[in-house]
TrEMBL record:
Transmembrane segments: 35-54
Reactions the enzyme catalyzes: Preferential cleavage: (Ac)2-L-Lys-D-Ala-|-D-Ala. Also transpeptidation of peptidyl-alanyl moieties that are N-acyl substituents of D-alanine; [GlcNAc-(1->4)-Mur2Ac(oyl-L-Ala-gamma-D-Glu-L-Lys-D-Ala-D-Ala)](n)-di-trans,octa-cis-undecaprenyl diphosphate + beta-D-GlcNAc-(1->4)-Mur2Ac(oyl-L-Ala-gamma-D-Glu-L-Lys-D-Ala-D-Ala)-di-trans,octa-cis-undecaprenyl diphosphate = [GlcNAc-(1->4)-Mur2Ac(oyl-L-Ala-gamma-D-Glu-L-Lys-D-Ala-D-Ala)](n+1)-di-trans,octa-cis-undecaprenyl diphosphate + di-trans,octa-cis-undecaprenyl diphosphate + H(+)
Name recorded for this polypeptide: Penicillin-binding protein 1A
Keywords recorded for this protein, A-Z: Antibiotic resistance, Carboxypeptidase, Cell inner membrane, Cell membrane, Cell shape, Cell wall biogenesis/degradation, Glycosyltransferase, Hydrolase, Membrane, Multifunctional enzyme, Peptidoglycan synthesis, Protease, Signal-anchor, Transferase, Transmembrane, Transmembrane helix
Lineage, uppermost ranks: Bacteria, Pseudomonadati, Pseudomonadota, Alphaproteobacteria, Sphingomonadales
Pathway noted in the entry: Cell wall biogenesis; peptidoglycan biosynthesis
Compositionally skewed regions (Low complexity) per UniProt: 809-820
Subcellular location, record wording: Cell inner membrane
Domain Penicillin-binding protein transpeptidase: 452-742
Domain annotation Glycosyl transferase family: ranges: 80-257
Enzyme Commission code: 2.4.99.28, 3.4.16.4
Renumbered residue ranges of the record's region Disordered: 796-839
Family per similarity comment: In the N-terminal section; belongs to the glycosyltransferase 51 family. In the C-terminal section; belongs to the transpeptidase family.
UniProt source species: Sphingomonas albertensis
Subcellular location, principal: membrane
Amino acid sequence: MASDPSPNSTTATGRTSDRLRGGFARAWSSRWTKAALALGVLGVVAIFAFWFAVMRDLPSVDTLRTYEPPLPTNVRGIDGAPIHSYARERRVELSYAEYPPLLVKAFLAAEDKSFFEHHGVDYPGLAGAVYDYVTKLGTGKRAKGGSTITQQVAKNLLIGNAYSPSRKLREAVLAYKIEDTLTKPQILELYLNQIALGRNAFGVEAASHAYFDKELDQLDLAQMAYLAILPKGPSNYDPVRNTERAMIRRNYVLNRMLDNGFITRAQRDQANAEPLGAVLRRTPKFQSVGGYFVEEVRRQLMAKFGESAKDGPYSVYSGGLWVRTSFDARLQDLAQQALRDGLVRFDSGRGWNGPIRHVEIEDDNWLQPLLNSNIALDYRDWVAAIVTGKDGNAWSLGFRTGKTGTLPRYAAQMAVRGKGGNAFGAIEVGDIIAVAPEGGQFALRAIPKVSGAFVVEEPASGRVLAMQGGFDDRLQAFNRATQAMRQPGSTIKPIVYSAALDNGMTPASIIVDGPFCVYQGARLGQKCFRNFGNSRGAGPHTMRWGIEQSRNLMTVRTAAQTGMPKVVATIKKMGVGDYAPYLSFALGAGETTVGRMVNAYSILANNGKGGPPSLIDFVQDRHGKVIWPENWRPCDRCNAPDWDGKPMPRPVTRQRQVLDAMTAYQMVHITEGVVQRGTAVTLRDLDRPMFGKTGTNNGPTDVWFIGGTPQFVGGLYIGFDTPRNLGGAAQGGTLAAPIFKQFAVKAYEDLPKLPFRAPAGIRMVRIDRGSGRPVYGTWPNTDDPKPAVIWEAFKPESEPRRAARRSDAAPAAAATTTAVKKAEAPRDSDFLQRQGGIY
């Protein structure tokens, strides 16, 4: 049984509690306790404030392990040669080992001499920066940086460049973490690759080209020291505007290198004596070519991968892509020259069209406005010039190179189109004009008002080899090859007749070339079609003749007989356009582009196989992995130096059978006649198998030619951007075909004369060219462009036949013995083999 606590124990417990309460009261009343507690609270608040201002949302430095700086996209041509680069930040990424040791020391001397000793933060320097910040508060002046190279990496790559004390603290914390995550060489590599150094150069290698037009390993000590001063502010040390300031800062860096033991006194003195030696403008590492072509490539890449880093890792302007295209520089030059010459020929004698552009000149500074206009010319000896003033009977000119010249009155006497007067009186100061050298001075030239486009494609692959979308992409950025929707006129006819061949007609089918009218309903009434030039119908003729002579009446009659729904379905699957089933579309009234038409003809030349045309063969990421097209596979052994005895390698093709192979060959065979004796006869003296078709639409507002050989197909049109009449004499055969001929003369030079290959099943039959009837006992004269008898291509069981009468059977049998004894009569197959076969 428990006993109650004694009175003595209870009293002792009470005394202990009183002593504790008293002690707590005395401690609380002490000012030291209160001070300590206040300091503790302030410490907690400070820690929280530090976390909130500095540590909250601090980015992870682990991203730097896999950091990839924005890199330009590089474009290569069909032979692998570089042709262009898309960049907003010029940068070449190097590894640390590729940077010259002396250049690294120059940057250390200028930016962070103790880089290899500290752990991310230079505390004396940081304290000095904080003090400088406090003393300059309210003055509007910016405090000195005091950042180490590691802090600059943190600022540039992770947290940005906001000017505040909290950013400086965040920068310091991140620098400490970076030093724990990366090695010193890795940090320097990041810094030297990404630092902005002016002239749109990011990274030291790009700056080397921008300022000295040299590779990094070609720089001397003075040039390395100059690059090392640029992180402090490239515009402050511009070698042209701030030469003296730049020299002082460069020499300061050289002295720092000497003090740090990086160089000898003799090296310092020699470098100090050198001028800056910076170039005004860098020479491109390669000549950028194919303006319209590479711009179309850029559009396609932008649609696929996006523009900047926010659009994904493979963006055009930061993804560092390597793009292999089908661009053929030789064919591009020929197509560009032929189209330009044709436009100038058409436009010559029509007067001056006014200046290319007008800009304002202030304080006689004409060079900068001219450079900023981005206007240049490379047609023959033409150059772009800015009018800077007038001296009596001559205008003063300035050029992009900084040189000057004069335009005398007598060399600018052409009439001003649409206004009257002469060009000399219409020119004003600030006009940018086209001129050409003449007798030590310059003569005015007129940029053609008319325009057009030219596209060249390889039928076997569908690859676009050349593309010219106007006179000059620096004057006219609009790409008429892919963006200008024009009426193709008669160039649509081979596709219309292909639909007819697919639906029972043959090249020898007789079609009436006569009046053809259709009733279009109560509102539109009767519509009667006409031949070009309003010529009357010529009566019944073969399909071949109708195509060779481009007869409109025969075309619409054929389209009506075939059925316009079938015709427009064929036009659509050939990639030309999606049209309603109206007969006018059979004569080229629907709008399309020259690029689409060239692709459609390439499908014909490739026995009906094809697909969308391609400018891009494949795209690689910065590490060399092919990322487009999907499921891309290389062609094994395609680049072998010689045949290895195995089956020939076949490149991977993405083409499909768009049109019946025999139909396609029949149409190519027919349109070879257009070149031999039809509307494109000007091409006949090229003396090679060639098919094609001219086109002239209403007005005429556009003239066309499309055609080519098995090696490549080309096409072009000429017309004003705002369609208007080209003149009654303008026709595809007189304007467009000669331009293609100028191109073809050199384009096909040294190429073999390849015939078009006939697909399996095609039957070659001798027929009378006029009537389409079969012919026996005589042979086509291959030397005559207009033979009475020709070989015609037919599908099986569709060729015309001569009926045999029963009464002929007995004499034929009796004659057999005699025939055997005589030499065997010539056979069609013998003739075809002598001609090299049918391909």
